[in-house]
Design a protein that fits this description.
Elements: E1 7-10, E2 16-20, H1 31-37, E3 42-46, H2 63-76, E4 82-86, H3 89-100, E5 105-109
């Protein structure tokens, strides 16, 4: 079992945007948005636990465990504040992340 969910990564810079997809999707839905954002900022598009490349990783079992797993990955990457963007179930995960670690999010876009 993987310790953290998979994240497609692009761009560079001091600002980081975290993209979280909806139920049944994967990080691929953000491909075009990542390409446009990566020119100016670092972008992480996660496969939520149970989806895409994260079929077998920590955080299975719902939105709360997924939020904890992604927060743990951000900490392992030694990232400070990030901009959270979530679609559908990803919005729930982003909201739970913001509630669990209020100092982590710079902004929340649902």
């Amino acid at each position: 079992m993987l310790p953290f969910p998979y994240a497609a990564e692009g761009g560079a810079g001091s600002k980081t945007i975290v993209l979280l997809h909806g139920f049944g999707a994967c990080s691929e839905i953000w491909r075009d948005i990542m390409a446009s954002l990566a020119a100016e900022t670092r972008v992480l598009a996660y496969d939520l636990p149970g989806h895409g490349h994260s079929l077998e990783c920590e955080g299975m079992g719902g939105a709360k465990p997924a939020a904890r797993a992604i927060l743990a990955d951000l900490a392992a990457r030694q990232l400070g504040k990030v901009h959270l963007v979530g679609h559908s179930m990803g919005g729930t995960v982003a909201t739970l992340m913001a509630l669990a670690d209020p100092g982590r999010g710079t902004s929340l876009t649902l």
